Amino acid sequence: MVRPLFVLTILSSAFLLFLVQPMVARMALPRLGGAPAVWNSAMLVYQALLLGGYGYAHWLGRFEPRLQGRVHLGVLLVSGLWLPIGLGAMQPGPGAQPALWVPWLFVLSIGPLFFAVSAQSPLLQRWFSLSSKGQDPYALYAASNLGSFAGLIAYPLLVEPAMALTGQRVLWSSGYILVGLLVALCAGTLPRDRPLQAATTVTSPPPGRKRVAHWILLAFVPSGLMLATSTYITTDIVAMPLLWVIPLGLYLLSYTIAFARDRTAADIQTRIAPVAILLFGGILVSGMPGMPYLGAIMALALLFLVSVSLHTGLYRLRPEPDRLTGFYLAMAFGGALGGVFSALVAPLLFDWTYEYPILILAAGVLTPHAYLFAPLQRLWEARVRPRRLSLAIVAIAMVGLIGAVIAFPGSGDTPSTLQQTALLIVVAVGVLAIGMPAAFGMALGAALFAFGGYQAIAISLEPGARTRSYFGIYTVHDAPGERQLAHGTTVHGTQLRGSPARERTPTAYYVPGSGVGQAMQALPALYGRHARVGVVGLGTGTLACYAQPGQDWRFYEIDPAIVRIARDTGQFTFLSRCLPHPTILVGDARLSIAAARPVSLDLLALDAFSSDSVPMHLLTREAFASYARALSPRGLLLVHISNRFLDLEPVVAAAAKAGGWQAVTLFYTPATPIRDAATMSQWIALSRDPATIRVLKARNPAWQPTRGRPGLVAWSDGYSTILPLVKGL
Predict the structure, then answer these.
(1) C-alpha pair distances (Å), 406 with each of 289, 398, 400, 418, 458
(2) Could you tell me if 191 and 130 are in contact, meaning their C-beta atoms sit under 8 angstroms apart?
(3) Are 303 and 247 in contact (CB under 8 A)?
């Protein structure tokens, strides 16, 4: 019964470890805001704690087995003082940066618990090797990552929809106690009669520095690529909710295949990985215009194949079980470095997701290569001089083909015949070079550059065209007669170009016929000449062109980069022409509004829900109570719910019902032909004064009562789930 006991314990520990990650990030949202930033910072904390846990397991391995068991059970007991799991009582100010506060909060709140559980995968594998008299423990790592995958997927699909945060805390805390009992049973299987020297002596030769560096690199690339894939597909391909779960889940699942006892699946995927890297990598860098869902599927498939391939490389280079903990420590160090590179270093160094093609190129060189054809193997394994000559020929050919691609680009999105031919030759050379990492790397680099890399570089070289911040990547596009700001695939504002009158024209979601346009035009009738207006989400500043003399306007914006683009660069002139000296409060809007004076606004417009990362903490009962406190008794709340993937109307309707608001919605469809770059939009207007809503409906009968959904309760800081709102489910 030793193997089933250890498998169950490792599965349970890993399940808890990855169940807590989205749970605690969810707990932090009402306090910190900024969902993408919270998740990225949380991932770095998790990887750092995981590295610490693996280091502790490696250190503990020097002691006698029974003493290891007693020490670790003591660590579990001391960490249990932090139960029930939850965040500390610290409260950041409105301008707090998630990059600083999330690590501080998480380490103090859950650090000991996460540290204790994270150490158990390598530690229990070492114990299993001792208790089973030398059986191979590495297959248990596959069980560990299967449990991690199950915990990660279970949270958004099962746990979050089924219970509030209070119940989730009890569930996790109970699981921690159960795991502690299982660990005690595992410790009871450790040998009693082995002398200290025999139990702790390491007999296998130590790994060299090159081998350890190889371990670190093989762990670095998949970890970095996992985060880079999340950023890339949600920025340049498709902004789909819950998409961040899938890359991490596939990354974890790849360990299960790579470390499995049956090597068939791992060997097959490792063999086809170079072909997939060459074909998918080049195509994906182009951004897959017009086929976003296919692009997302290809990116996820590529991540999975790369992860299986490189983790299989780790498995093949694994040491003997007596050096297991050091091996896992090197893996954890590489994984942490990959996370730091993609989440912290890349946003500072690059203005686009250049980390994505860089990591694909590294994966192509590091993945285990197997020659496709025997004659090619004889060619590449020939004497040194012919091999060098072959590499030189490949390098010259790649440079020439890249020059042809750039010199003859074709028209529009259609490549020229010469360009298509050159790209086919690049791919063919890459396929023939599989088995020789240096030549394959040259061909892969040429493919990445020719398929779209040079276009990305051209945009980066254009002054002011692209900006990257902690919260996203913003690109300014010029088209005939207009200029547009996009966050990946989500448009944040469009301005008409030409005369001053055209530049002052509200466009896109904000045209006069839209819900917010109707409300802005009703301001004098509702609140007189001195209306007080607040807008959550600055964008390009389009709404400022509804401002009239005597009104008091303020904007709430979480990203300083957006403020700079809208106000300081001169690329957009909505603010300079319509509201030259606006009040802009930088920080999370909910925290800023909570800190504002009561009854300080007449109208508040929430415009923060059109992208994939919906800030759920802005739609809870507690958030609506904060809005009610800031608004006057007859105040008006406008919520923009236009979204390609989510139906947010039922959750706003539920919050309105719970908070005593009157709510109506206006779905605007632009006339044909489209003028002023108008787009479809849906806004919900809410007020606690029925007379205010009647004024809106009298001005435009198209306002209709909001549509709720049976069984959907209002979100709160303790309970929310995005799953029922995904369109098509």
Answers:
(1) 19, 12, 10, 10, 11
(2) yes
(3) yes
CA distances from 181 to 102, 186, 674, 678, 720 (A): 31, 9, 66, 62, 32
What is the residue-wise DSSP string for 388-425? HHHHHHHHHHHHHHHHHHHH---BTTBPPHHHHHHHHH
Query: What is the per-residue pLDDT across 408-454, written as a single tens digit (0 to 9) for each?
Result: 665 555 555 666 677 777 777 777 777 778 888 888 888 888 777 77
Cα 190 to its chain centre, rounded Å, is 41
CA dihedral sign of residues 564, 570, 572, 577 = positive
Per-residue model confidence as pLDDT tens digits over 633-651: 999 999 999 887 788 899 9
C-alpha to C-alpha distance for 352 and 563, rounded to whole angstroms: 19
* pLDDT above 70: percentage of residues in the chain: 85
Rounded CA separation 180/130 (Å): 20
Q: Which residue has the tokens 């050379």?
A: 429
Of the listed ranges 58-62, 167-171, 360-364, 541-545, the least confidently predicted one is: 58-62
Interacting residues of 381 by C-beta distance below 8 A, sequence separation 6+ = 387
Query: pLDDT tier at 199 (50, 70, 90 boundaries)?
Result: very low
Tokens linked to 230 = 């999340």
Query: How far is 370 from 316, CA to CA, in rounded Å?
Result: 14
Distance of alpha carbon 465 from alpha carbon 453, whole angstroms = 16
pLDDT of residue 644: 77
Burial of 728 (0-12, 13-18, 19+ CB in 10 A): exposed
Nearest-angstrom CA–CA distance, 142 and 262: 11
AA identity, residue 540 = T
- What token pair was written down for 256? 């299960």
Structure token digits, residue 24: 């605690």
Scanning 449-514, the segments in alpha helix (DSSP H) are 454-461, 500-503
- Mean pLDDT for 524-544 is 93
Q: What are the percentages of helix, strand and coil residues in the chain, rounded to 5?
A: 60, 10, 30
Between residues 62 and 16, the one the model is more confident about = 16
What's the CA gap between 372 and 586, in Å, rounded? 56
DSSP string, 323-367: GHHHHHHHHHHHHHHHHHIIIIIHHHH-SS-THHHHHHHHHHHHS
- Look up residue 670 and give its DSSP letter: -
Q: What is the pTM of this model?
A: 0.81
For residues 126 and 201, give the distance between their C-alpha atoms in angstroms, rounded to a whole number.
Answer: 13
- CA triple 231-236-241, angle to 5 deg: 60
Q: What residue type is 452 in one-letter code?
A: G
- Whole-number pLDDT of residue 389: 60
What average pLDDT score do residues 568-577 get? 92
* CB-CB contact of 401 with 425 (8 Å): yes
Q: Rounded CA gap, 250 and 245, in Å?
A: 9
From residue 230, alpha-carbon distances to 44, 221, 243 in Å are 14, 14, 7
Q: Which residue has the tokens 């030398």?
A: 134
Tell me the average pLDDT across 285-310: 81
Is residue 604 within 8 A of residue 639, CB to CB? The reply is no
Nearest to 93 by CA among 33, 16, 149, 166: 33
Contact criterion met (CB below 8 Å) for 399 and 239: no
Amino acid letter, residue 634:
R
Cβ atoms of 303 and 223 within 8 Å: the answer is no
Give backbone dihedrals phi and psi of 483, rounded to 5 degrees, phi first: -135, 140
Q: Output the six-digit token pair for 488.
A: 């990946």
* Pairing outcome for strands 466-469 and 601-606: unpaired
- Give per-residue pLDDT as tens, 461-475: 888 888 888 777 889
Please tell me the distance from the alpha carbon of residue 534 to that of residue 536, in angstroms, as a whole number. 7
Polymer length of the chain: 729
- Alpha-carbon distance of 332 to 338, in angstroms, equals 10
Beta carbons of 69 and 208 less than 8 angstroms apart = no
How would you classify residue 677: left for phi > 0, otherwise alpha for psi between -120 and 50, otherwise beta? left
